[in-house]
Amino acid sequence: MNLVPIQGRCLWSRFCINMLCLLLVNILARFVLVWITIVQWFFVISRGQPNGCLKDYTAYINAFCYHSMQYLTFNCDHCPFPLDEMKRLSTR
Questions:
Q1: CA gyration radius for the chain?
Q2: Of 61, 62, 66, 88, which residue is the least packed, with the fewest Cβ within 10 Å?
Q3: How would you write the pLDDT of the chain (92 residues) with one tens digit per residue?
């Protein structure tokens, strides 16, 4: 595992820019998840089964939130989407 040096500019960049940006994105993502949960309940009540597209989308959002928290807590070094190129997150 190649960790970011604890001293120097990388640490301050990671803290100031990345932490603030990712925390704001995570707050927005959780807000979106609440609304998707409400819509999904209406799908289950009206059709008897959840919407497959919404299930896939929420799995992607959950994987993103998990990955960004892993990055912010120094458990991984690959920066998530808003600060790095977009890659397909594994949802399984």
A1: 16
A2: 88
A3: 455 555 555 667 667 777 787 788 888 988 999 999 999 999 999 999 999 999 999 998 888 888 888 877 778 777 776 556 555 555 44
Q: At what angle do helices 52-72 and 20-47 cross, to 10 degrees?
A: 160
Cα–Cα dist 51/38, whole Å: 12
Q: How many CA atoms lie within 13 A of 18 on its CB side?
A: 22
Report the C-alpha gap between 40 and 21 in whole angstroms: 28
Q: How many whole angstroms from its chain centre is CA 28?
A: 10
Instruction: Give residue 54's Cα distance to chain centre.
Output: 16
Please give the Cα distance from 23 to 27 (Å, whole number). Answer: 6
